Amino acid sequence: MRVLNLIGRARFCAHADTGGYFRVGTKTCPPYLIAIIMVISLAGCAREAPVYHEQSFVFGTMVEVTISGEEEARARELAGKVLADFDYLHRTLHAWEPGALSRMNAVFAQSPSKAAVAPGLVPIIRDATRLSEMSGGLFNPAIGKLIKLWGFQSDEFQPQQPDPAEIKALVQANPRMADIVFEGIQFYSKNPAVQLDLGGYAKGYALDLAAEYLRSQGVKGALINIGGNIIAVGSRGGQPWRVGVQHPRKATAIASLELHDGEAIGTSGDYQRYFELGGKRYCHIIDPRTGYPAQGVQAVTVLIPKGNRAGTLSDVASKPAFIAGVKGWSAAAKAMGVESAMLIDERGEVYLTAAMKKRLEFQEKGLVFHEVP
Length: 373
Fold this sequence. Notes:
The protein is an alpha+beta fold. The protein has nine helices and 21 strands.
């Protein structure tokens, strides 16, 4: 069942040759950035199972829709509808550009003022609240003011060191998802410091919607990739999809694995949105406990089994583990119900659960491994 309105979208063929670069609207990206976290491998596709591949730029990242086993015209139509839904969802949930979420944020800033809520946002915010509670508050979409303070609520940001007093004040204000109250068709916040930023939730939510839609249309094989958060639908001509996990410091895959029907994988890294100041890297993943960007970790990858909301969990669950760091990542993953997870620390050493180790094939040589139960 389609739950989103359709609007226009920009798209282009994945195989278009633009002199070594793929062009998306006014943005031009080197090929290795097209799959920022995951590298989709389509090598060896069976001739009897045609594969259609389409890309666009949504959610501030590269989005890829790959459909197997459908005639090109139908695959193009299905992919176009998925990308249109993504574009609509992106505009609805954008934290700082005009949309339903930014209107909510304007009301929160005037707490305890009340206003009517867009009905479609209620289940999203309630689900994000549930996941925030599961994470012990490490996943906290209510800290939009901190994210903005660090300059990450912008398409183009500049290195900046916020005033420590401002950071301290926002941390002490303790904005939480639980501060948001719904009363019938109205909403308000008990805490004026609440500002929602669903950047760590929306991509996974979109994956689940797309997978549900494609299944409802009888698609037997598809792979949907939103900036490295990937979900598999069915298979590629009877064979599992194979994806690569991006090396956090190289334009290559550090490992690969087979992704089966309904499984989803997601990575949080310090190499997508970051700046360096005084020789120190500051990434967009903010620790709600300190108000500062999380340190000591290059990337965290989680693999979610087939089940309800696998895409959403693949987006959310990597954040608490990233913030918890080397000492707490395993417990943070377990708190989110994740058994298969991997962390790469600031030195490039690999920490992974036994379940994740069984699934990954590492291409990188000379890695230092630490396995946890």
